[in-house]
Design brief:
By secondary structure, the chain is an alpha+beta fold. It has helices at about 10-15, 30-35, 55-70, 75-95, 95-105, 110-130, 135-145, 150-160, 165-185, 190-200, 220-235, 245-255, 265-275, 335-340, and strands spanning about 15-20, 25, 280-285, 290-295, 305, 310-315, 325-330. The protein has a single domain (about 10-275), classed as Hypothetical protein af1432 (Orthogonal Bundle). The strands form 2 sheets. It has a 5-stranded antiparallel sheet with strand order 6-5-4-3-7, covered by helices on one side. A two-stranded antiparallel ribbon has the order 1-2. The chain is globular, with a radius of gyration of 20 Å. One of its GO terms (molecular function) is phosphoric diester hydrolase activity.
């Protein structure tokens, strides 16, 4: 890892300090601020079938909640985060299509924990596709779960506001990789790969990233992978003021930014992993019918779909009249999840 230094600003110096090579710690003031956080209220019920992938992911999200919002109150955060990462990995290995669908379909009450679960799901899939060893993969999944822990409440607030970020929010955004690393260190976590990935997950190849403005040669490959995962999940998730972006459009935007900001090989890996039309995407077929993508196939443009009235019947889309014409984005709420989870039960 290259030598990383704390940004030379009063905002950063009031919240963080350096404690050796690439080790950052919270200032007493910032630690007290995190210690004063309380758990947000949770009112949304889980409407999916109890044994479905959607329900398991929802339960993992619930376990993650106190670790993100009241981390300094947790007794064994390292153990619990690794347990969540392990259980999530097992689920993704067994029900990958359903887990991808959950990224596109599951509504959320609190943005930060749902985004963390989605990013952890996707980085597990991509890490498996790269044949990463189990230890490395678990560290990356844990990094995905905690990359935004330093601004959990702020990120929730921004997901609800249509206005651009305020100056204070922008300052926290630019600093949050450092805040997150320092906070998980305060929680007793010393895993070097975990910290490196969190610290660098917003750096970009052309040096325009933050907080260190690193050039391509100095950005850790695993952190760059998390950067791509973070951007992908952000585009696929809805906000209170906009619908989720269709997967095809999100992938197209990432593809257009390759070579300058992001690694084209990783974009190719992402598209091969998700497909052009990922599971969970609603599509219009050539015959005018609306279907939902349920299974990936070797043909990236022709996944299997199902009709809403027949959730267990799989339809091939490589021939007319069932070729996919275009994606469509319906309004999904929590009460629909029970019905949607049937497509992967």
């Amino acid at each position: 890892m290259p030598a990383l230094t704390l940004p030379d600003s009063l905002f950063a110096r009031n919240r963080l300090c350096e404690d050796g090579d690439n080790i950052f710690r919270l200032s007493p003031r910032q630690r007290d601020e995190y210690a004063a956080f309380v758990l947000p209220a949770c009112t949304q019920s889980n409407h999916s079938q109890a044994d479905s992938a959607f329900a398991v992911l929802s339960r993992l999200e619930g376990r993650l909640l106190p670790l993100l919002y009241t981390p300094l109150d947790c007794h064994t955060p390292n153990v619990e985060l690794r347990a969540i990462a392990s259980e999530l990995g097992q689920l993704v290995d067994q029900q990958a299509d359903a887990c991808i669908a959950s990224i596109l379909l599951s509504p959320y009450e609190h943005y930060t924990p749902r985004h963390a679960i989605n990013a952890a799901t996707l980085i597990h899939l991509l890490g498996k596709a790269q044949s990463l060893d189990a230890s490395t993969l678990q560290s990356l999944v844990c990094a995905a779960l905690t990359m935004n822990i330093g601004i959990a409440s702020t990120q929730d607030q921004m997901a609800r506001q249509a206005a651009p970020p305020t100056t204070a929010q922008q300052q926290l955004i630019k600093l949050h990789p450092l805040l997150s690393s320092a906070l998980i260190r305060e929680m007793g976590i010393t895993d070097l790969l975990w910290h490196e990935t969190v610290l660098m997950h917003h750096e970009q190849w052309n040096g325009s990233g933050y907080p260190f403005h690193l050039q391509q040669a100095n950005i850790a490959e695993h952190a760059h992978l998390l950067h791509i995962v973070d951007m992908t999940c952000s585009k696929l998730m809805p906000r209170s003021y906009r619908n989720p972006m269709p997967a095809q459009q999100a992938l197209s935007i990432l593809y257009q930014n390759q070579n300058q900001q992001i690694d084209p090989n990783l974009i190719t890996l992402l598209i091969r992993t998700l497909g052009i039309f990922p599971p969970g995407e609603f599509v219009e077929l050539d015959n005018g019918m609306i279907a939902i993508v349920v299974e990936r196939t070797d043909n990236l443009q022709a996944p299997r779909v199902a009709l809403p009235a027949h959730p267990r019947q799989r339809i091939q889309t490589d021939n007319t009249p069932y070729r996919i014409k275009r994606p469509t984005v319906p309004q999904i709420s929590a009460r629909h999840i029970h019905l949607l989870s049937r497509f992967w039960s």
